[in-house]
Structure formats: C-alpha cells, structure tokens
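Researcher: Quick sanity check before group meeting.
Model: Go ahead. Protein one:
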Amino acid sequence: MSEGNLLYAQSGGVTAVINTTAAAVIETARKQKKIGRVLAAKNGIIGVLREELIDTGAESAEAIHALRHTPGGAFGSCRFKLKSMDEHRPQYERLIDVFRAHDIRWFLYNGGNDSADTSNKLSQIAEAMGYPLRCIGVPKTVDNDLVITDCCPGFGSVAKYTAVSILEASLDVASMHESSTKVFIMEVMGRHAGWIAAAAGLAGNRANEAPHLILFPEVVFDEEKFLAKVKATVESVGWCSIVVSEGVKNTEGKFLSEVGTRDAFGHAQLGGVAPMLADLVKRKLGYKYHWALPDYLQRSARHIASRTDFEQAYAVGKAAVEYAVKGMNAVMPVIKRKSQNPYVWTVEPAALANIANHEKKMPPSFIRADGYGITAAARKYLQPLIEGEAPPPYRPDGLPDYVQLKNKLLKQKLPKYVISDK
C-alpha cells in the first residue's frame, strides 16, 4: 500500500552524469511499495511552482535505464533561487499546495548549494504548515564545492574531460610551436573554487610537462609575475600551455572577466578570461597564441565520463530514495572516502543545514608554492575521481545512442500560477 508520491527535480547547470542520478532515483523508487507514482518536475523548482509535473510512469524501464548514459537534464533544469520565507512566503505556500494536490510526500532536489538551501527551507515550511513532506537534497555540481562530501557527482567527469583536453591540445601545440603557436590558453569553469582547473594538473607529472601554468580563483592574479612565468616557460620549453579558471580575480578582488551582469542566483556573469589573457600575452610578449573556451562542452561530455563519477552519481540517487522511505528529512547523501589506496568510498547522510550556504574551496595545501600548479596532495585526492571509463552505447551511424523521454505532463489541479519577483 503506497503512502504517497515522490517528486524528483533537477537544478542548476547540468552535468554529464546528472541523468545517471535521475535513473537511480526512478529505478529505486519503482521498487518501493511505499511510493505510488514517481514524478519529475519540468525545469526544476519552476515546474513545481507552475504545477508542471511529469509522469515518469509513462516511460519504459529501457528508457529510464538509458538515462544512465545520457547527458543533459532529462526533465529540464533551472536557475531560480527561492527567496527567504520571510520575503516570499506565498511561493513556499504554493509549493506545499502543489505537493498536497498531487499527494507528494517525498521531494528530491538534485543540485548544488542553492538546491540544498531550497530543500532545507521546504522541509521547514512543510513542518510549519503541518504537511507530511520529506525533503532530500541530492548532490550534483561540476564545481565540486559542496562541503562535507568528499567530492560531488559530476565533478569527476568534467575533471577527466579537462585533463584529457589539455593533454591532447598541448601535444598539438608542441608539434607546431617552432613556426606557429607559442602559447595556448584553455579557460575552464569555476567561479570561486579552482577544482576543475586543478584537475588539469593531472595531465602532466614531470617538470616542463603541460599544463605549465594553472590559474586558480584562490590565488590573486599578478600580471607581472604571470608574464614573467610565461616568458620563462617559452624560452626554456619552446611553448607554454595554460589553464585558467573563469573565477580568477585581480588585486582589487574583482573577476578579470566580469561583464557587469548577474544571473538568476545573483552571481556575477563572467565573460572570457582566456581571450583577455591571450591578448595580454600578445601585447606584452609578442607571442602567437590560441585560446579555447570549452564552456558547456566540459560539463556535457558524456562520451568521456569517469567510471568513478558514474558509479557515485548512481549511488547518491539510490541512497536518496532509501533515505526518503526510511523517514529521513532535510538530509543529503554524501560521499565519504574510506581508503586512498585502494580507493574505497561509501555514501552516508548529512544534514542539509550543514551543507547549504557553505562553499568548499581548494585548500592551500593543494596549490603549489608558486601558485601555478597542484601539489602531490592534490594529485592524490584528484586521481581516483577520473579513473575508469563508462562510455555510452553507439548507434550504427557512429553517434552516441542517447534517449529522449516523452515527458508526459500530469493534468493540473490548481489555478495557474505566474512566477513573480514581487
């Protein structure tokens, strides 16, 4: 006998393995007698507010299984931050109204820091309104900046993509530097934490191996020191390969690439720091350059996903459902590293209150003394996260066999809701 329905939603920038977590949630929930229908919100919390709920029961077991190897966000994601309950209580009351109308007793929100905060707030308002709702935050972020968890599902795959990309591009530059490109710059994501940039350091293990310079958000950019390092590298190696995080700041604490606008979460919209640095190198040193901005490519590259990341993404989704039906509330399944060699990990619950609104940056011990590379400690932490492959199946035409769901919406029961910032 079921006790109600479960609602799953995706939030923020998607990853190569967020749908792996979605598959885990749906497959695990379908086995639970306590759970009636397994629903998904269209475009995250926005879909809940608008009462746009997807019936995943319309999807075959084969289609849900195929989510394991399909990138993107199968149900749509969003960048929408709920204000505090004091500022916008009607929004929270609307969410509870939707839950009540569709007998939703479990809400699983798959995202990063802001999603953890939303899940925590929802658990509080549900309790205050006397509605029996269990809220579980499910970790996901390429930035790897959630606290408590050893790593974040989604990070291992973007880390692998970054290390492989700079390795391959650097081999290209090494081939051409005699009469062509002397400096190559690749910009990666990472607003405040340099985890993705650090992963590039796995590409080289010995002196003079690329990347020669890594620029972290945690290290203030020094133009004179940077140019001197580039010049010295070109003179000794013949060329220079650089990885820069989008969140690098100047001595005034401002992003080098900030364009003056802000996204839905209030974060500064960042432009291209790679072309900015490339222009600086050209003007000051006269070297021919190339730069690359992987942007969405780095977080959607399912074809080169890490096996470790794939397994962890599935594990947290499975655990989230198990925690929910056990009656846990306002928690998140987090990854705990039990052993380094061999690498052994497990999943444990952690309170959302201890995760929301906190940010994990690169520890100083992970950044080389000169500020331009990673240490042995960082390499030890990062290496297991990119190990193994989990390739998708391929179609006869040579392209990956990704699934497209039906995403059939339930009939709405409440009046239409217009989202307003007022």
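Researcher: Fine. The other one?
Model: Protein two, sequence then structure:
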Amino acid sequence: MSVPEARTPVEEHRHHTYVGTRIPWYVRLMWVAFWVMAIAYVITYLLPALQRELISPP
C-alpha cells in the first residue's frame, strides 16, 4: 500500500475551488413547481389521512 502524501490544507484547497454559474431560470422554476406540488400533496392527501388515522385508528 502506498503512503499518502503529506500536504498542508492550503495546498489541498487550491484544487477544490468551485467557480460556478448562475442557476438557469428554468431550473429555479422546476424547484418552485416541485415545492408547490409537494405542499399541495401534503395538504390534499397526507393531512386528511393522518387525521383519520389519529382520530379513529383501525
């Protein structure tokens, strides 16, 4: 097995910098649509089912 190289954190960091771009508008739109649908699901299906199960379990 080889011995790992001894590097300082400063030397290691130079290879881990991230230079990104802005998130495109359609990706943001997809995230907004996802959260809207997730909240709609919880309100429409999950909360009524939880109420039925907690009030009168089978």
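Researcher: One line on it for the slide.
Model: The CA atoms of residues 44 and 52 lie 13 Å apart.
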